[in-house]
Amino acid sequence: LDAFPNLPALCNKHPKPPQIRFQYGTAGFRTIATVLDSVLFRVGVLAALRSKRLEGRTIGVMVTASHNPEQDNGVKLVDPRGEMLDASWETHATVLSNAGTTDEFVLELEKLVDRMGIDLSRPARVVYGRDTRPSGPSLVSALEDGLAALGAEVRDAGITTTPILHYLVRAINTLGTEESYGEDSEQGYYQKLSAAYNKLVSPRQTPPPLLVDCANGVGAIIAERFAGYLGDRLTLVLENTAIDTAGALNNACGADFVKTSQKLPPSLVGRLQPGQRGCSFDGDADRLMYFYLDERSQFHMLDGDKIAALVAAFIVDLVKTAGLESQIKVGVVQTAYANGASTKYLSERLPVRCVSTGVKHLHHAAENFNVGVYFEANGHGTVLFSPAAQETLATYEPSTPAQSTALEHLRNLNLLINQTVGDALSDMLLVEVVLAHKTYDGSDWDSLYIDLPNRLVKVVVPDRNQFKTEDAERQLVSPPGLQAKINDLVRRYEGGRSFVRPSGTEDVVRVYAEAGNKSNADELAFRVAGLVY
Ligand code: NG1
Ligand code: ZN
């Protein structure tokens, strides 16, 4: 590392706070923003190393704490194909972030460089962005110091959404190749999505105006710019756009609020009309929740499971109509949090797999299908078209006009969907396309299946690491004996289901329960929580 003489001095500018242990978890590093300065510096160094390790391919860094409160922040790395950081590097990130002093940090770096055989003379290229959090600029400057310490070539994507940052990484790394993902700019992203949408929805199918809750975050900026590309083919009514109001981000609004409280954000009362569709983004616009009010102004939530059901059924139909049933196998990936009714609905139509919580698990499982649909119940998800499926779509020769139309739709969906990661904007267009084709309103969509009443609670425990699971987190293996007690309780509730797992993003254990009616679901959740505590 002698080739980088500024490294120690720059590192000294960003001392690690004592007594804090950082961990690169399912959402990268995420905690209260005031303690993250050293982490950002070190992530900058690590991103540069990862790029050098991959022969100068561009790595992404996103500074965000998503749906979490405004005073939190976080950072995650994006690999060259626009996907989440390779799991083996999560450990390196954790180790580097916890080195106590500059000397210890440099020592850990040297070990990593040795072990990975990293050629430090290679170029390093990094693109980074941040959400609207007030702590963003200072954290980004710590990141920039880390990148400068290794002489990385940098590109600042500015204030942007997590999915746009992922798009940029993939676009930059595929520029001018056969796999080109689009122009490597925010405009390129808008053009790609709007062009695909306009081919999928004809003028006479133009949907009624859609209310969009931007969570007072970056989604407001991006949706506003994007609206210009949609013209009159989809009218977005933007709400909760106060990105400069202190404390407003994700506060009583946004996708996480809607999912956890199962209520309309109070700010939308009187704004959303009965019969109208609305949707909520989260703070970095990678999650999407839909909802509508019925004629009696009753609120109905359409969550990630409902999106999966809507989209998967639509794609399966298109594949059949195109005559591609034997060549393109469509499958769905869910987690244990998926509503039991959605799993039943989907299983009757196509293969469904359950995996552990965390996008990386869902994403990888979805890659095993030709077309893999994955959505977390909380609204994070996408659809992946495998290279083989894309090849089939590109070369298939339809033999009837109906086949040809269905094929064209599938090709455009492949362009409309941001396949690097969940993307609220792209997923919103996808939903609008399906609703337009099916001539569904919110209530038609909602009635695909009826959600089982459910309840999610958090329990603060002395040590969440005591809780260990198997079978895609549906069974506890530790603490010993606890699962048997849960099973005993669950048996007493008709249609009951419950599981317990440690959170990967918060220092809590989560308890989920479903039952035949709401009060039983609540009761079961609280009784299981009582066992956990
Ligand atoms: P944890 O804290 O591990 O439950 C939460 C979400 C995940 C995922 C991650 C990453 C729930 C119950 N859990 O994980 O689905 O989105 O955050 O943001 O929603
Ligand atoms: Zn998010």
UniProtKB/TrEMBL annotation:
Q: Which cofactor does it need?
A: Mg(2+)
Q: Paste the cofactor note.
A: Binds 1 Mg(2+) ion per subunit.
Instruction: Return the EC number.
Output: 5.4.2.3
Q: Which keywords does this chain's UniProt record carry?
A: Carbohydrate metabolism, Cell wall biogenesis/degradation, Isomerase, Magnesium, Metal-binding, Phosphoprotein
The yes or no answer to whether the keyword Magnesium is present is yes
Q: Does the keyword Nuclease apply?
A: no
- CDD domains named in the record: PGM3
| Similarity comment text for this entry | Belongs to the phosphohexose mutase family.
Q: So where's the catalytic machinery, residue-wise?
A: 66
User: Reaction catalysed by this chain?
Assistant: N-acetyl-alpha-D-glucosamine 1-phosphate = N-acetyl-D-glucosamine 6-phosphate
Q: What does this protein do?
A: Catalyzes the conversion of GlcNAc-6-P into GlcNAc-1-P during the synthesis of uridine diphosphate/UDP-GlcNAc, which is a biosynthetic precursor of chitin and also supplies the amino sugars for N-linked oligosaccharides of glycoproteins.
Pfam families per the UniProt record, alphabetical? AMG1_II, AMG1_III, PGM_PMM_I, PGM_PMM_IV
- Annotated Phosphoacetylglucosamine mutase AMG1 domain ranges read 185-288, 303-440
Give every Alpha-D-phosphohexomutase alpha/beta/alpha domain span.
Answer: 58-88, 102-174
- Which top EC class is given? isomerase
Which biological process terms from the Gene Ontology are attached to this UniProt entry?
carbohydrate metabolic process; cell wall organization; UDP-N-acetylglucosamine biosynthetic process
Positions binding Mg(2+) in this chain are 66, 282, 284, 286
Q: Where does substrate bind?
A: 376-378, 501-505, 510
Name of this protein: Phosphoacetylglucosamine mutase
